[in-house]
Design brief:
alpha/beta, Dihydrodipicolinate Reductase, domain 2, Alpha-Beta Plaits, 3 domains, six-stranded parallel sheet, five-stranded antiparallel sheet, 15 strands, globular, binds NADP nicotinamide-adenine-dinucleotide phosphate
């Protein structure tokens, strides 16, 4: 009997925020004909809200059980997850995972194993949790038409920024609240430094543009360097600051890709994406803009995406990775410009010559601000923007095609003058 018709007998790895959420959600969806048979966790002594006989700390118990026909991997350790997921695929067992770090770092191999062992791996929960963005990018959007994806893809940092902006709560308190709500990763620096958003962007690039990128090749800055003065500046201009992951096709067909804090104006669809919500704007040549919105973190919202994968396996759904097989492979662009605002403490921290054009420069004894146009090579080849005292924020519509700059067609924003 194939997995499509027989009962799904699940070996579940992880019983944390998402794992326990999935267990509860499955109890409320008996029609799915799926049962969690064993749960492998790390700490045997932790109290659990489920029958004790369900739990083991020995992964072999799950792999050796001939009845288990689906492995669901929901642990917070990407290295251990790598061994579990590859092991399951090599045994020909279908896998569902929510582990964006694992996927961003090893997707090439995981695609190869899926093909070699004819075992599907689904991971809708790994990007934007409850929002069905991966399957839509994979199935609906033709690569030639897709021009841009631009999103708030990390619920934890969006929650923190919302608390800072809307409730005037300080960073540390907001982070503690995000952790208490279960939105933050076990290691919160992964969220705060933008690495989680970058991992998700790597996954989205695969399904949107057929572009396989290594996380370390994507310029990335989180919210850790933002200062009160930046928030005050944003408020004064009527902007919000959001951590935005984006990819924009350039006129030469390559894709400009980055994760940066960005000033977002009220007319931008991402402006009202608040708290732990995520939002992704997709732009195509003919359909113009489309907007995906929903909860990007949390127990039940994330479990709902895992549940959707589980039910998709019933009708033989698997990712085909069609766009990866395009005759001309899509590549990361290293030739585009950024319109940015930078604040910093000491003049020597930001080189004037880094800017192709300076719109405005103001400096006082211990605080300086500049807005201007930078070539992306400044972020790819230099480190000045990673200094703790330096805050770099992308201006609205801040990615500029190199050809537009060469022909001087891009527009400065007069309202961004200090
Ligand atoms: N939380 C969210 O909102 C969210 C959203 C989207 C995706 N995700 C992803 O979902 C996954 C799980 O996240 P989470 O928030 O549920 O994490 P979590 O609450 O920290 O729970 C992690 C679970 O993994 C178990 N574990 C860790 N290492 C293990 C190992 N080697 N073998 C077996 N079990 C192990 C832990 O066991 P113990 O209970 O014994 O410690 C715990 O039950 C992560 O990949 C995360 O990135 C989370």
């Amino acid at each position: 009997m194939s997995i499509q018709t027989k009962k799904l007998v699940i070996g579940l790895f992880g019983f944390g925020v998402v794992g326990e959420g999935l267990y509860r959600v499955l109890q409320q969806t008996p029609g799915l004909n799926a049962e969690v048979k064993r749960v492998c966790i790390k700490h045997a002594d932790k109290p659990r809200n489920a029958p004790p006989e369900l739990f083991t700390t020995d992964p072999e118990t799950l792999f050796d059980d001939p009845e288990i026909n689906l492995i669901i991997e929901l642990i917070d350790d990407a290295d251990a997850a790598f061994h579990l997921v590859t092991r399951a695929l090599k045994k020909g067992i279908a896998v569902v995972s929510a582990n964006k770090k694992l996927l961003a770092e090893h997707l090439d191999l995981l695609i190869e194993l899926q093909q070699k062992y004819q075992a599907p791996l689904l991971y809708e929960a790994a990007a934007c949790a409850s929002i069905p963005v991966i399957r839509n990018l994979e199935e609906y959007y033709d690569n030639d038409l897709l021009q841009r994806i631009c999103g708030i893809v990390n619920g934890s940092t969006n929650y923190i920024l919302s608390k800072i902006f809307d409730e005037d709560i300080d960073f540390e308190t907001a982070l503690r609240q995000a952790q208490a709500e279960g939105f933050a990763e076990s290691d919160p620096s992964t969220d705060v430094e933008g690495l989680d958003a970058r991992n998700k962007l790597c996954i989205l690039l695969t399904h949107a543009f057929g572009l396989r990128a290594r996380p370390q090749d994507i310029p990335c800055l989180g919210i850790q360097q933002l200062k009160q003065a930046d928030a005050d500046y944003a408020r004064e201009k009527g902007f919000a600051i959001k951590l935005v992951a984006q990819a924009q096709k350039q006129s030469d067909g390559q894709v400009a890709t980055l994760v940066l804090p960005q000033f977002v104006a009220p007319e931008n669809l991402l402006y009202n994406v608040k708290q732990e919500y995520n939002g992704v704007v997709i732009e195509t040549n003919f359909a113009d803009k489309q907007f995906f919105y929903g909860k990007g973190a949390g127990s039940f919202p994330t479990a709902s995406a895992v549940l959707s994968d589980l039910s998709a396996l019933r009708y033989r759904y698997r990712y085909e990775y069609k766009k990866l097989r395009h005759s001309v492979p899509t590549t990361l662009s290293e030739d585009y410009y950024l319109k940015v605002y930078v604040s910093f403490e000491q003049l020597y921290q930001v080189p004037r010559e880094a800017f192709q054009e300076i719109y405005q420069w103001s400096s006082a004894a211990d605080f300086c601000q500049v807005s201007g146009l930078l070539h992306i090579s400044q972020l790819l080849e230099h480190d000045w923007w990673k200094n703790d005292s330096v805050s770099l924020i992308l201006l609205p519509d801040g990615i500029i095609d190199a050809r537009t700059v060469q022909t001087k067609k891009y527009q400065r924003k007069p309202e961004l003058v200090f």
